[in-house]
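Lab channel / #folding
Pinned by the channel admin:
"Please post every new chain as: sequence first, then the structure tokens as a reply. Keep commentary short and put observations after the output so the thread stays searchable."

First post following the new format, from NK:
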Amino acid sequence: MAKPVRIAIIPGDGVGGEVMSEALPCLDWARSRGRSMETISLPYGASHYLATGETLPEAAFAQLRDRCDAVLFGAVGDSRIPDGRHAEEILLRLRQGLELTVNYRPCRPLMPGHGPDLDIEVFRENTEGPYCLQGSTEPGRAVDLAIHTEPAIRRLLQAAFQRAATRSRPLTLAHKANVLKHGHGLWVRVFEDLRREHPGVAARAMHADALLCALVQDPTAFGVIAADNYLGDLISDLCAAYLGGMGVAPSISWAPHRPFRCSALAEPVHGSAPDIAGKELANPVGMILSTALLFRHLGWKAEADALEGAVKDALSDGAKTPDLGGTLTTAAMGRAIRDRLPS
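Reply from TO:
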């Protein structure tokens, strides 16, 4: 008998706990359909850090790495910790320590008649670039380093090429190699190598500023977009605006080379939103759709399809939180989605 899937739950800060509360019943629903699953809840976030000084202790990280299959994550960020050190040490430690190179952010319509008919999938490198947090500050001068390595670039681009080939979609690499000749030059070289290996994929490299302009003018022309950590962050957030905003945008990160047992982390794109935390105004759609992405990653296609369908049905029936022009609370929106799940 196969071992149950083990998922670590980290709600984090702000609205993270509120939206996580609407995702956890979706795990229970999957269990009710015969999916074998265990969960462990972990307290790491601002309150735990302020009380104990711990961000993500080595023993806890080792437990996640070696004894869990995936992480379901809410959000981190708290005004009580102005420099955000706890958020960096928790989330970036998970992404980098687990080598979750591929960050996947789909952009497809959720509501009929809302925005253009898109089918964009952003593949963002998740462990390097300027988010490596290396640099220096001195009076009147600051330096942020960006690190790009061929293994990470190749893993990200291979995943993007494979996705484009599987779905017969065009692939675009976003870069600024005309200025960032070293780091982005390496991206373009690896991209050209892989393009020769995938002659059936319609692939092009495009300056990021021109790509952003084209995304605004005609986003329907794009299929799969690949980018480094920084550009991928910007591009995927722009794409989220077409869906209705950050509250409905999901993501999942994974390690295609599977160096550890724990090889995936699903989280909504939005942050901890401290201005609305505790007011039941947060939209749980991004968190619930991230849960659906996790189901799909685990091979639970029927549950992923059903959960995504329930979200679309709820929105089509007019169930919306204030960010989408509705009046439902976070909990009411979660119930509206779960009420549309098959038994």
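NK: The longest strand covers residues 5-12.
TO: also worth noting, Residues 12 and 156 are 27 Å apart (CA to CA).
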